[in-house]
Amino acid sequence: MEEFTISQILINLVVAAKWTIILSSIAFVVGGIVGFGIMMMRISSIRWVKWLSLIYIEFFEGTPLLLQLFLAFFGISVVFGINLSPLVAATVALTTFTSSFLADIWRGSIEAIPRGQWEASAALGFGYFKQLRLVILPQAVKLSIAPTVGFLVQVIKGTSLASVIGFAEISRVATQINNVTLKSLLVFSLAGLLYFALCYPLSAWSQRLEQKLTYKA
Question: In this structure, which of 58, 59, 101, 120 has its CB flanked by the most CB atoms within 10 Å?
């Protein structure tokens, strides 16, 4: 059995944390872009566009992320004959997962804006998109910051499921080290501390933002 020191275990986990950060960052940024488009469809007055976005959101919110990872990794190769790497498959699954939740968060923020804001801006002669850009979205952004940052924590933790398709993030590397060292308590405790170090600052920031918004309201 190969001997690993605590420092060696920690170094390997920190290297794996880099890929956790990369995956969660890509998923959050691309998911945010896609999510904004889905949100715009969701608040559209065109019925079929609204229904398409609703089906998208309900599917990806209503199915486990683990299932979505399997569908991305194995399903795409079967249906389209494309073999995706674990990184690409995990990115696809986490992006769709993230976009559906962000679309719902942002839709809720827009719908929380009093109807009078729409009516007042319409009275000024603003068109629909000008109303959104100048009046509604600036207010909705303030409401959505705290839940959006809070959801980023869920995205980071969700990357741990990518280990099932072979993506070498913190959980995957922790499992591999444990299989060699059999030091389960030590290895997974260190992995847990790394997740905590990544997630706690964001959770605390989200809570502070929410409190600030509450006080201002």
Answer: 101
Task: State the burial class of residue 68 (Cβ atoms within 10 Å of its Cβ: 0-12, 13-18, 19+).
Answer: buried
The DSSP string of 41-82 is HHT-S-HHHHHHHHHHHHHHHHS-HHHHHHIIIIIHHHHH--
Cα distance between residue 183 and residue 188, in whole Å:
8
Q: Which residues contact 150 (CB under 8 A, 6 or more apart)?
A: 202, 203, 206
Instruction: Note the pLDDT tens digit of each residue in 36-58.
Output: 999 999 998 899 999 999 999 99
Residues contacting 95, CB < 8 A, separation 6+:
26, 27, 30, 31, 34
The one-letter code for the residue type at 179 is N
pLDDT grade, residue 212 (50/70/90)? confident
Q: pLDDT band at residue 213, thresholds of 50, 70 and 90?
A: low
pTM beyond 0.90: the answer is no
